[in-house]
Design goal:
The radius of gyration is 22 Å and the shape is elongated. The strands form two sheets. The protein has a two-stranded antiparallel ribbon. The protein has a two-stranded antiparallel sheet with strand order 2-3. The longest helix has 18 residues. The protein contains ten helices and four strands, in the order H-H-H-H-H-H-H-E-H-E-E-H-E-H. By secondary structure, it is mostly helical. Helix 3 crosses helix 4 and helix 5 packs antiparallel against helix 6. The protein has two domains: 116 residues, de novo design (two linked rop proteins); 81 residues, Alpha-Beta Plaits (2-Layer Sandwich).
């Protein structure tokens, strides 16, 4: 009854409830990203913080999930999520915490986590696994991509009539935030977006 009362009070006060959390993740196809968003939304308001398995577990789960969607997750992160989910399921005092635990545990029963550990997001929704590169053969050195980049991630020299021997434009991956603003800015289609595992496969072929 207390859970129902909490939901009613949240709706009346205009605060976010579990219905809103489920609604917030409806359009996300990637299971891992969906779980990350679910936990993030849960922490933003519905989580009351009355019991430690739920409050501490949710925060740790969010950190682990963000590591995995960023392409730097490990098996240890997945094992930790499994442990957190079980502890939250049995240790949470309210239905909200248990629902979050169930959502997390159900997601762990898919192949999505294994794919992400291999730097693959089959739904192509985890932008951190995307690689933006400039195709030199198509680049005309117009500099429009560099002008469109708000993060100074593109370096190179704009072509002018009185100079030769230009520094070709390239995207500095450590500065690139995967915003995608450079793609429509290039009228020549010189910017290519590939996935992390595609790049890795290409590197293996070159080495062979």
């Amino acid at each position: 009854m207390s859970d129902i009362k909490d939901e009613i009070e949240q709706e009346e006060s205009g605060k976010k409830g579990m219905k809103d959390v489920f609604k917030a993740v409806e359009g996300i196809k990637c299971v891992v990203k969906k779980s990350s968003k679910f936990v993030e939304e849960f922490l933003s308001e519905p989580m009351c913080g009355r019991c430690l398995p739920c409050s501490l577990g949710s925060y740790e789960a969010m950190v682990r999930l963000k590591r995995i969607t960023a392409g730097i997750g490990t098996e240890e992160d997945v094992h930790a999520l499994q442990r957190i989910g079980v502890q939250m399921l049995f240790g949470s005092m309210c239905k909200k915490g248990k629902d979050t635990a169930k959502f997390l545990l159900e997601s762990l029963n898919t192949e999505a986590y294994k794919e992400h550990l291999e730097k693959r997001c089959n739904e192509r929704e985890c932008l951190s696994l995307d690689i933006y590169t400039i195709i030199t053969e198509k680049c005309t050195l117009c500099g429009l991509c560099s002008e469109a980049c708000k993060y100074n991630a593109i370096m190179g020299e704009k072509k002018v009539s009185y100079l030769s021997g230009y520094l070709p434009f390239e995207i500095r991956q450590k500065r690139c935030v995967k915003c995608g603003d450079c793609v429509p800015a290039c009228p020549y289609g010189a910017i290519e977006v590939t996935h992390e595992e595609i790049k890795a496969e290409a590197e293996v072929e070159v080495e062979a």
